[in-house]
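Lab notebook page, bench 4
Experiment: in silico fold of construct C2
Operator: M.H.
Input chain length: 450 residues
Purpose: comparison with the prior construct
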Amino acid sequence: MLIDDYKDIKEFAFIPDKAINSYRELTQNNDSSYVVRNIINKEYVAAASEKNYSRIVMKKDSSIVTDIAQANYVYITTKSFSKVDAIPIVLVFVPNRIPDQQPWEMQKAITEYDFTNTYYVELGNRPRDMLYNFAYWPNYFEDLKDLKNNLVLPENWSYKEQPDDNDFPILKSYLAYTFSKLWKDKQVYMSENGRYCVFNTGLVNKNYQYVYVVFESNIGSKPWKFCMFACPGIKYGGRVLAENFSTLPRPAHYFSDISDISYIISTEKTPDEQLPDLQPDHYFIDHPERLPLHFLLDGCRKSPKIISLLNNCTDTIESEEYWKTIGEEIGNDPDVYEDLDASFRNAVRKAVMRVSWNYRTAIPVYFPSYNKMSILLPLTFTTGKDAEVALVVERNSVSKKYTAPTILSLPTAYANARLVCKPESDWLNQKILEPVSNDDDAISAGEIEQ
């Protein structure tokens, strides 16, 4: 079987960092990724070498199969144990979607308890899809409209400053990604009789009571179906919560250390010495479309060809090719690249100085696809203007240094930051919302390509 075709894990499966991190969380193993991959490889070789492959289970959806060609999940029970409850760890593999690489990809690590639990269900590896794979929700749109209009504190959930009643894409993203985080953190609770399950939306009513989503068991392709929104002690929903759950799940929790949500400024260093490590190729070559047009026009003034391209950019379908060409031209012109880099670094320098003056300038943000916290800093390229772009900054827990892997438009930054809390900064708040797309999936919290 596996060991006959794939002698070690390097041949069998790609192991991304997020899978490594899920293993680390269970084992509390802080070794390097290289060491952890070697441990996983030993577990793979040991399990695949055993007679009858007793520790390997292959499934097509929820049904066990014996032919790996039919499987879309492979589970390998290891001899490693979770640190908290000493339960064996199970490695979960899914088909690799990238061609010409290993046939499988390690999705995550779970405990054997989760794997054998009656209510365990595979929800896929895309956080944005997990809620929809989990539950049948026939009137999803109307139910969310009722949630925003009648149940929770008023808030603009659109990318527009004055949206109509049917425009609330940020709320859809918020609920989907909140569920994915709570599912990962085991904060989706099932009642003892198996009839109901519930999660905390993190949203509150006018009395600041949490609003919960209640599902009931379903007969069909999805294990659950939407039942109601509920608040403790209020009407029928309150009785369902009280009669079926001895404790209620907490809201999503995203950080445990102040460094996760703050840009730490040392009083012993100047702001220039505390700039994050920048990735200018990514900003100027890969994604010039995320930068203000006036910034590009000024920085590219030495290249008539690029200026002409910038002046001809449109919002049509061909824009993607235009921006790709512009990025390539910037990368091929050292003078232009240097001018853009100098202006960009000056804007970052001002942002760090702003943080040193007011620590609340840095805004915490969570990216579900990477399961990590980052920080947003405002970039201003014109004197007298407020923020024009958000710089995403991450802190390396080992080196204690900051890196800035990408930039985001302000509406996109707002949607991502809203997962953690409602941004009310002087530079990122609902006043920056503007039309960005009619496609809910075009700019969606947590799915930003970095």
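Observations: The first strand starts at residue 13 and ends at 14. Residues 309 and 408 are 22 Å apart (CA to CA).
Next step: discuss at group meeting.
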